[in-house]
Design goal:
The chain is α+β, with helices and mostly antiparallel strands. The chain has eleven helices and seven strands. Helix content is 54%, strand content 12%.
């Protein structure tokens, strides 16, 4: 089985940090914007021989690949991968400010192989200038390849276009069965296209031509010409659709906004209907209360009129009684005066008789 086990970054784009991304199972990358998720994933095509420069051209990174990923002598990008029962690593570091170099090492990754402990107890990465000497020490008797440039490394890992002096390396380090002649030519372009979700048609065409040219004597094209014509037309149609992707996205957004606006209007309409029903109910209640108040006022007016009539009748009777009593009083007073006068006259007559 051939597989990439993990990606290790030592003092890379995050200064003084050791980072490890396991690739031999399901891995979930999450974090806030700018945390470095995409920056980390862009390194995967590097394992298959992608040009370091191409990894930053299509990204937001403004520095060169070396300044961004390998800014120090102690900066490393390391891939640990599996070749059947063999586990080995490829170490990538900056030879100078302009070039990246690669080394294959026939052993699994161990952090202790790339660090040293100072007298104060601090553990720091070793300089890439001392890497070969470090692995050739008595404690690290393992096979270590010479420094390779990007083109040489790509030919080894893909087992394609090997120079004469490098012919022994693919058997030991290629990602395919080097001894069986399996090749992974242009694999870095395929992986880059997968990660970028697209690739240039010119690159795809170049890959196909290269594959056909390499297998000119054995390849058989069992495809009907009409099918090829259909594929070509479908690809051209796909290109036209891709050109309209932004418009389609804009229309999709507009459609979403329209649906949202329609939903908002429907909610407003529902609220307006409920408000109208509530207003009608309140108006009916007020009308009912007003009618009841009017009826109550009419009853009070009638009662007041009845009471007023009764009071007036009682007042008239009282006045009549008062007049009668006044007449009786005057009569009695007159009788009293008359009696007193008569009594006085009788007294005079009596005295005269004596």
């Amino acid at each position: 089985m051939f597989a990439i086990n993990r990606l290790i970054l030592i003092y890379s784009y995050k200064a003084h940090h050791f980072q490890e991304l396991r690739l031999n199972g399901h891995t979930n990358l999450n974090g806030v914007n700018g945390a470095g998720k995409t920056t980390l994933l862009r390194l995967l095509p590097l394992f298959f021989g992608a040009s370091p420069r191409s990894l930053v051209l299509k990204s937001r990174v403004t520095d060169s690949f070396i300044k961004h990923y390998l800014p120090r002598e102690s900066s490393y990008i390391i891939f640990e991968y599996q070749r059947d029962k063999q586990t080995c690593i490829v170490v990538i570091y900056a030879r100078n400010e302009d070039s990246v170099c690669y080394r294959f090492i026939d052993k699994p990754f161990n952090m202790a192989d790339f660090t040293e402990t100072h007298s104060d107890g601090s553990v720091v990465p070793i300089s890439c200038l001392h890497l070969k000497k470090h692995f050739h020490s008595s404690q690290h008797r393992v096979h270590l390849s010479d420094q390779l440039n990007t083109s040489e490394y790509r030919s080894v890992i893909q087992n394609s276009g090997i120079k004469k002096e490098l012919r022994n390396l693919p058997v030991r380090y290629s990602f395919g069965n080097g001894s069986g002649g399996q090749r992974l030519k242009d694999m870095e372009k395929i992986v880059s296209g997968m990660l970028n979700r697209f690739t240039d048609f010119t690159e795809l065409r170049a890959m196909l031509v290269s594959c056909i040219d390499e297998q000119r004597d054995t390849i058989e094209l069992g495809v009907n010409p009409d099918t090829l014509t259909t594929w070509y037309k479908e690809y051209r149609a796909f290109e036209k659709v891709e050109k309209e992707r932004l418009k389609a996205a804009s229309l999709t957004q507009l459609s979403s906004n329209l649906a949202q606006t329609t939903d908002n209007l429907a909610q407003l309409q529902q609220r307006l209907r409920l408000l109208s029903e509530r207003t009608q109910q309140q108006e009916q209640t007020h009308q009912k209360n007003l009618k009841e108040l009017g009826q109550q006022g009419e009853r009070l007016r009638e009662e007041w009129q009845d009471n007023e009539q009764a009071i007036r009748s009682s007042l008239a009777q009282t006045k009549a009684d008062l007049n009668q009593h006044e007449r009786d009083k005057n009569r009695l007073e007159q009788e009293q005066a008359n009696w007193q006068l008569a009594t006085g006259n009788n007294k005079i007559l009596i005295n005269a008789s004596y």
